[in-house]
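Annex B. Sample input.
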Amino acid sequence: MVEIGRHEHRVYEPPRPECAGWQNGVVESSADPAPVAFSGSRLGWRDLPRAVRARIAELAGAEVIAETSATSGFSPGFAAVLELGNGHEIFVKAVSAEQNPVSPELARREITVATALPPEVPAPALLWSDDDGTWVLLGFEAVHGRSPEQPWRAPDVARVLAALGDLAAARPVDPHGLQPIAVALADDFRGWRTISAAAHSTQVDETGRRGERGAWVLEHVDDLAAWESAWPEAALGTALVHGDLRADNVLLDGDRTWLVDWPHATIGAPWLDLAFMLPSVEMQGGGDADALFWAQPVSAGLDPAALRAVLAALAGYFAHSSLQPSPLGIPNLRRFQGAQAEVTLDWIRRLPA
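Annex B, continued. Sample output.
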């Protein structure tokens, strides 16, 4: 299990004109390989304060004798499977604001979400948690498996899409503390409206240097803002939405497909996780996002305009976020978001007019 991705570290800072990849909302073309979903830094067991290590051992019920650190995901905190002296294993997350100021609140959110997950959802069980106001600790059932290979292989794509189809039918356990997705992401999913205002105020005239995709964005930035503004109605629904599924938040274990890291869970339309995940699948070589989307039962009868609205909001979030300074301890996140913005825009352009 790993943590954070698309919606973590939602701290607004003004766009930096010199930021590579996007400038004034215009994407720069790049031949670079897909970026890796990993922060490049993570705490080890010995990096934790002695009191935190003692508390984890107390909660786990045995001394810790070995660790296997998670090797994907963006969190700079501690995330590892711990082998215990009693022969058991447990997956532990330990975060504090020192590593990243937003991580503790996300960990607290994951504790809330755990109580809302129905038993049919393939998520590791939360066994215990602890919060002393500085360190937030979570102990999960340890599950094993591998992330989907990259580039994606067709059998892995099929397995994960089947799991998303099952998830689309899930509903949270009542009572729950999950927000409607349109409420939870109201501030995040307005990137094109922000970018459009900035672009018009600075009279961007660098279309020629931005490539064909950039030229299209400049020509359609007002359209993107208008499509984006319609996303709340398009996303309405009562389904359980993970909200942050990518290859690094999936574990394939024999015939079991685990969906992990749930701090961003909300309620909304049942097709949202499919739409949110497919740009990363295409980015990582898994196939055409549009073809994969419409081949799934959950997309049956969906108005393409609703999909366009949600994808515009998603692309705007990625594009605007990629302009911000890197969050503390997560230097690779902005490049990953910029790459997802490119693929999502290309998907939008393939939709019927």
